[in-house]
């Protein structure tokens, strides 16, 4: 019941102005989210748009009048996963039909964008295929699809979307907790040769400063304490500031830091080529910008970086890391790595291991290269054997998880700030996050929920910390 509209909801678009017919039966929507944080943000936006149209959220597809799969296309088998989920949903839809009830089915997200009409051809139960740039039009598209015609909407008009996205109610924000995402940038112009994002999310677009400030102010007023700015290339964000100058992400962070109630800022995901001086300065001068930076390098080999079209060398990356650490010495780095890109030799792989040893990561994500249809990497010769990819991934992950464990253990005995975000797993516990994003479990009274407490770390495991209130 996350999405009931309350009195605080201000009209920002035509989606929010309609008063709901009191007699209208409540309809239920189930949204399943795959993939990245931007999909999490987008699913919330879809819920907001639909709540203004009379839908309430349900946690299971069983009793849903509308099922939306918000899909991811970044790595292999994503589309296959969606089709097998659609197989399960087909049975539910048929059962509901026996009871004389309708179940609308929609595929959203990057698989929708990439496959378009092919989806409803392969899975005729799908009523609506909707790409990420059209979520603000969901209610209207659903009305069109409800009379039995198949609707496919994969147009690109990002600014239009941001202008018309429904505003969540204060109640909805509160239920989502004290941390929130705000998309500030979408799409990508970098065209790394392994990546589908420039095709599924389109060209790089930055949201306007006023929109971002307004959304963050609303979140803060509803009790949000920590905001993570999202973008496929978030540090490429730029826009005109109120002073008439062109701002980068650094200036934007300084502006958002002034908003009452916001106590922590984060951003993700960044590209090494867009780490401007003002952003590094923000890490030096802004206490509420958390000392954690996700800065994927993908490979430690110059030859592979070139083949990936990353447009920087390993030395450029080392120099950049030095500058960032000079500005903020307690910063923890996180990264993404791909093993087995076409042509990757044993030596290239060793170079990646060496880079990891030199940089030292607090956490990281690593993947086997997965050829994506339509990307240049997929047609390269010298595709690497699956077995070799698996071995290289295992080796890399041993190293990365050792670094992560060591980093967690290094905090034992230290007193750190923890933002309490939810009840813990055990009775009497609250769970929160450290400045470096580690989950921290603490025995603490419930009224500390939403507060930042001083916590002495007493134990560390591979994935979390345990502490006691100071
Ligand atoms: N194969 C494997 N990993 C990929 N990523 C993106 N595309 C691919 C691919 N084709 C990884 C990158 C990126 C992260 C979000 O997903 O490491 O940073
Ligand atoms: Fe994909 Fe990131 Fe490269 Fe853009 S910069 S193409 S989103 S990996």
From TrEMBL:
Binding site for [4Fe-4S] cluster 2: 188, 192, 195
Pfam assignment, any one: TRAM
Cofactor descriptive note: Binds 2 [4Fe-4S] clusters. One cluster is coordinated with 3 cysteines and an exchangeable S-adenosyl-L-methionine.
Superkingdom, natural source: Bacteria
EC number, as in UniProt: 2.8.4.3
Keyword Translocase annotated: no
Domain MTTase N-terminal: start-end pairs: 27-147
InterPro entries found in the cross-reference section: Elp3/MiaA/NifB-like_rSAM, Methylthiotransferase, Methylthiotransferase_CS, Methylthiotransferase_N, Methylthiotransferase_N_sf, MiaB_methiolase, rSAM, rSAM_horseshoe
Keywords, comma-separated and alphabetical: 4Fe-4S, Cytoplasm, Iron, Iron-sulfur, Metal-binding, S-adenosyl-L-methionine, Transferase, tRNA processing
Sequence segments annotated as region (Disordered): 1-24
Domain Radical SAM core: 174-406
Amino-acid positions noted as binding [4Fe-4S] cluster 1 in the UniProt annotation, renumbered to this chain: 36, 72, 110
Lipid metabolism as UniProt keyword: no
Compositionally skewed regions (Polar residues) per UniProt: 1-16
Assembly with partners or alone: Monomer.
NCBIfam families (UniProt xref): miaB-methiolase (TIGR01574), MiaB/RimO family radical SAM methylthiotransferase (TIGR00089)
PANTHER family named among the record's database cross-references: CDK5 REGULATORY SUBUNIT-ASSOCIATED PROTEIN 1, MITOCHONDRIAL TRNA METHYLTHIOTRANSFERASE CDK5RAP1
Homology family: Belongs to the methylthiotransferase family. MiaB subfamily.
Name used for this protein in its record: tRNA-2-methylthio-N(6)-dimethylallyladenosine synthase
Organism name: Pseudovibrio japonicus
Organismal lineage: Bacteria, Pseudomonadati, Pseudomonadota, Alphaproteobacteria, Hyphomicrobiales
